[in-house]
Amino acid sequence: MLSFNKEFLIKGNARMAKAKKPQQVPASRLGTYISRSATGESYKAFVPAVLPPHPPLDMSTLYKQFEQATQALSLLNASADLVPDVGLFLYMYVRKEALLSSQIEGTQSSLSDLLLFENDETPNVPVDDVEEVSNYIAALNHGLKRMKSGFPLSNRLIREMHKILLRGGRGSDKTPGEFRRSQNWIGGIRPSKARFVPPPPEMVDDLMSDLEKFIHDDQQQLPILIKAALVHVQFETIHPFLDGNGRLGRLLITLMLCADGALGAPVLYLSLLFKEHRQTYYDLLTDVRMKGDWELWCAFFLDAVYASAAHAIKDTKKIVSLLERDRERISKIGKASRSALKIHAYLLKNPYLSLTKAAKVLNLSVPTMTSTTQKLIDIGILKEVTGHARNRLFAYTDYLEILTSGTDPLKN
To answer: What string of DSSP letters covers 119-135?
Structure first.
């Protein structure tokens, strides 16, 4: 079984990047700059070379990471099958990835905030933050549903998902569902002062058309993990929308792996590693654009897949063990065990429990709900978290501890 090592090869790759000797980069791997002007100032927009990279990737440098990542995905798929209720398990995994991806973009919500929001409770952050995460979940589910019905992963589907991603709240004024028709940039107050300026708007349609063709070009015979790594960078470099590019670019990784069958379900949350190593992540994206160094990026990406899968496998085992332990506890409480098992099943999707709401959903009387909840508190499964005498809220704390690992918001 894989083990999760926090000192995994990403740090080694970062050191490798600094130690690399300057090399002559083939012009065919580099993009081009196009001069433009705005408000009397000139700037240069970057246009990436079409995929795949030329000369081709040196796969001999990626063999070890590729084998590890492939094995990890296989074990993760098998591990997910061990969970008693895969649907409920996926429910939480999707939320974790959505949250982590949104945190990279600056949202300050936590997983607890999201779960409270979905339970009609007031979170501890602005509603806009949790709405962004909720929209991400809806966009991913839409994409998976469409592909399951036979619809291809295409620019049309990408635009559909973007429309959902930016509906309501922040970003709703940034033409959701449409490729941009104006220049955007990253860092700085205007293009001439920006850290990076993506391609001019009139080139976006053609660049995205080329990217779509590459996604469906089977003649390249590239492994899906490598293909997903290439597509992610190209999408982020094109930056085809006015907002939401980072989140949608990470969503594409999951969609590509699921469409290919490399992932049986969206149980891989790469955003955890991208979040923890975000400076390396950004630096390597820049190195691809400026130096044509696709190999180092792919090594980082494969390491992230390996470590993320290993982490997910570890969490899966913890959850399975926890559920078995707690169901055994519940079976020993006597007559109340039947209603307690119903509540326990409900907690897997709603780790924060409101007595009146749960009573309605589970078709239990409030007195039965109250007495059974007390028994779950007595055996250490639930804890009251408000400290109030009325409108109390109870939490499945051991379950939440596993789910929330690594999901604290980034510090500003």
So the answer is: TTPPPSS-HHHHHHHHH
Task: Determine the Cα–Cα distance for residues 356 and 360; give it in Å rounded to an integer.
Answer: 6
321, 399 contact by CB (below 8 A):
no
- Every domain of the chain and the residues it spans: 28-315, 332-403
Class of domain 28-315: mainly alpha
- Nearest 5°: CA angle at 101, between 245 and 8? 115
Which tokens in the block code for residue 141?
Answer: 């589910």
pLDDT digits (tens, 9 = 90+) for 202-254: 999 999 999 999 999 988 889 999 999 999 999 999 999 999 999 899 899 99
pTM for this prediction:
0.86
Query: Quick check: 143 and 255 in contact, CB under 8 A?
Result: yes
Q: At the topology level of CATH, where does 332-403 sit?
A: Arc Repressor Mutant, subunit A (1.10.10)
Asked if residue 100 lies in contact with residue 140, where contact means CB atoms within 8 angstroms, the answer is no
Query: How far, in whole angstroms, is CA 344 from its chain's centroid?
Result: 27
